[in-house]
């Protein structure tokens, strides 16, 4: 269980029902952070806060907030001023409406929080709101104040908990003007059919199976440098692909996706894409080499391979023959040694027998 530390305490206002809650961060960052250093000696680079009037460094306890007026005047605003703002959402998440979830533009969604029940007394009204949201299939729109400003939020059910997503105000979302292509383009039904086929072939993915490969690679680099080793080399650039028209690209994508899943491509997908070259003009190809030249190259390559194989086989046979000769020589030497030893033993026995006969005579 991760450490549940509240960043804000207040209550949910649900009509006349008040639900004490604690605001808890629902997400966490696993990104690797870096320090700034002086590259010549590795010394840390730090930012110090100085007072312009006294020209001295000040501590965090001496730093406050102020609003700069048009004439440059600084109007101090204390935390106590912010805590007593004359708005109902100062310490309250005030639910103002319930709407279908698809009414919320994902562009508006920001930080996510869990709303934890604030004590045993909050268990019953908290559960009531959660079950009401479940049964209605709606989300609650609320207003709340956090970090010095009033914000918009969306409450929804996640498991057995209520989560809140911070929302941007509608006037904070820019209209997509000037983003879409400004040229007239006609998309044919067959192109849409192929796009649908590609979407179906790619299928779905379990988001839990996805991970940050950049961070994995970064951790490998840090571990290698910490061990005094060379960091792993980056893969080479991907080879440049041929310019294909849209239909050919879609057909090839569908075929590749099916092959990666072990499926067979349909007969229609095996056909070439030259007939669809309407969207992008293909560059001229270089003329093919004459048949004789191509055949000569293949023959030469084949001859080289055959010669290489023969040379390798001959070398292997020669090595085996040499090994056999060495073994035979060793065997002959051992046999000669044994024969010489026998002859020596016989001579010694004959001498001993002659000497014995002389003593007897």
Describe this structure in words.
Residues 55-184 form the Ku domain. The protein is α+β, with helices and mostly antiparallel strands and 361 residues long. Among the domains are: 7-27 and 91-172, Beta Barrel (Ku70, Chain: A, Domain 2), CATH 2.40.290; 188-202 and 244-281, no CATH class. Helix content is 37%, strand content 20%. The strands form 3 sheets. Strands 1-2-8-11-10-9-7 form a 7-stranded mixed β-barrel. It has a two-stranded antiparallel ribbon with strand order 3-4.
First-to-last CA distance? 113 Å
CATH topology of the domain at 7-27 and 91-172: Ku70, Chain: A, Domain 2
Radius of gyration: 42 Å
Proportion of strand residues: 15-25%
CATH architecture of the domain at 7-27 and 91-172: Beta Barrel
What is the structural class? Answer: alpha+beta
Shape: extended
What is the CATH C-level name of the domain at 7-27 and 91-172?
Answer: Mainly Beta
Mean pLDDT: 76
SSE order = EEEEEEHEEHEEEHHHH
Low-confidence runs of at least 5 consecutive residues? 270-313, 352-361
Number of helical elements: 6
């Amino acid at each position: 269980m991760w450490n549940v530390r509240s960043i804000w305490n207040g209550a949910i206002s649900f009509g006349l029902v008040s639900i004490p809650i604690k605001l808890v961060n629902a997400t966490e960052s696993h990104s690797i952070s870096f320090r700034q250093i002086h590259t010549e000696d590795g010394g840390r680079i730090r930012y110090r806060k100085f007072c312009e009037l006294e020209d001295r460094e000040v501590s965090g306890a001496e730093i406050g907030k102020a609003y700069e007026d048009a004439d440059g005047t600084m109007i101090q605003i204390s935390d106590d001023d912010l805590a007593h703002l004359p708005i109902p959402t100062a310490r309250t998440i005030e639910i103002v409406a319930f709407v279908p979830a698809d009414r919320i533009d994902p562009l508006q969604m920001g930080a996510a929080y869990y709303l934890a029940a604030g004590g045993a007394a909050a268990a019953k009204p908290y559960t009531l709101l959660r079950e009401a949201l479940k049964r209605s299939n709606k989300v609650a729109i609320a207003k709340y104040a956090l970090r010095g400003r009033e914000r918009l939020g969306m409450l929804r059910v996640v498991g057995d908990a209520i989560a809140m997503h911070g929302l941007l105000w509608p006037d904070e979302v820019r209209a997509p003007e000037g983003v879409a292509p400004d040229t007239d383009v006609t998309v044919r039904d067959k192109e849409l059919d192929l796009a649908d086929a590609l979407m179906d072939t790619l299928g779905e993915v379990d988001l839990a199976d996805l991970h940050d490969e950049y961070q994995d690679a970064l951790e490998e680099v840090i571990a290698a440098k910490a061990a005094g080793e060379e960091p792993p080399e980056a893969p080479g650039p991907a080879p440049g692909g041929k310019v294909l028209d849209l239909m050919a690209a879609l057909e090839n994508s569908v075929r590749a996706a099916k092959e990666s899943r072990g499926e067979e491509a349909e007969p229609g997908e095996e056909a070439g894409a030259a007939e669809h070259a309407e969207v992008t003009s293909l560059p001229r190809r270089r003329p093919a080499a004459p048949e004789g030249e191509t055949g000569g190259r293949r023959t030469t390559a084949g001859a080289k391979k055959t010669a290489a194989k023969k040379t390798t086989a001959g070398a292997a046979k020669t090595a085996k023959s040499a090994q056999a000769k060495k073994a035979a020589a060793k065997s002959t030497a051992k046999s000669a040694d044994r024969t010489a030893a026998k002859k020596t033993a016989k001579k010694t026995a004959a001498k001993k027998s002659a000497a014995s006969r002389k003593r007897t005579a």
